[in-house]
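Readers of this paper often ask what the protein records in our data store actually look like. The remainder of this section carries one protein's record, kept here as part of the documentation.

:::
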Amino acid sequence: MIASTKTDDLMTGRPIWISNVARAHEALALAETEGVHYLLVADRDKDLEGITCLCEIMRAGVNDVVESFAHRSPTYVMSGELAETAVARMARCSVGCLPVIADPGRVVGILTRHDLVEAGLIELESGVTQCASCGSTHNLKSEDGGLKFCLDCLEATPDEGTLERKWYCTLGGGD
């Protein structure tokens, strides 16, 4: 991929929006109908309030209001910025998508990890761009710069060595 690729060249120009007062079951139906993983969340003035994804929608109760589980004040990238900037921002902020914003705050698209994989700018690897435990691509954290785990796995896992530990991971070679 050419180093001067811009976010606008890779983004989806028609992001799918949902109202912040919609219910989780409506968000699920919309995401499935549109074939998307991420929904941009609009406030009553139709401004960007947050982002939600299928993973969060599936964990919510069917009648939960979208604004109760959506991420507020989302991290974004500016229209015209280099795609490499978006790659670095996604990694630093542990997010799987970025709204693409044009001045003065108008959303012109959405750039997802999938878009960057398709462009050859990142590779999906377990423990690098996916949780080493469950395979999720959301909210990845690494305390030592090595393997990454999603926040759900980290928060659900008691201290190492306890009987309650709910996951394990193999780093090759079998069990």
User: Anything to note?
Assistant: Residues 140 and 150 are 4 Å apart (CA to CA).
